[in-house]
Amino acid sequence: MEREDLGALLARLIRRIMEAERPLLEAHGLSMWGYSVLTRLADRPMETQQALAKSIGYDKSRLIALLDDLERDGLLTRQPDPSDRRARTVTLTAAGKSRLRAAKADIRAMEEDLLAPLTPTERRHLLTALPRLAQTPDH
């Protein structure tokens, strides 16, 4: 029997993961996009709104409303960029870092359950290979 296409397999896996993540994130008062913003800001503590939208693949015109919600919840702050007053930088607050840590802990526990059918070697290989496959090739 021929193996299933990688795209079809990954699409099913992504849907499964997203369905499992959604209630975990909602329990922390976060949407998937909100979680993406907090995760990105944890990696890059001060990011312009435009760079943030591009880095997470989110429409920059819709990002403002999302950032408004996260700022209203005290999870991030926005300030004028000192090098370009028209731009705004986005920074995680202590509350944002705390909420992200809590959400990430729940997600990691869910991932452990998801990966449970794999042997330790299979798990290590998968977790090593996925980041390499996810990298955007330089063109």
UniProtKB/TrEMBL annotation:
User: Tell me, which GO biological process terms does this entry list?
Assistant: response to stress
Pfam families on file? MarR (PF01047)
* InterPro entries to which the protein is assigned, alphabetical: HTH_MarR-typ, MarR/SlyA-like, WH-like_DNA-bd_sf, WH_DNA-bd_sf
Boundaries of every HTH marR-type domain copy: 3-135
Q: Does the keyword Transferase belong to this entry?
A: no
Q: Keywords for this entry? A: DNA-binding
**SMART domains reported in the protein's UniProt record:** HTH_MARR
- Entry keyword DNA-binding: yes
What is the recorded name of this protein? DNA-binding MarR family transcriptional regulator
Annotated organism of origin: Kribbella voronezhensis
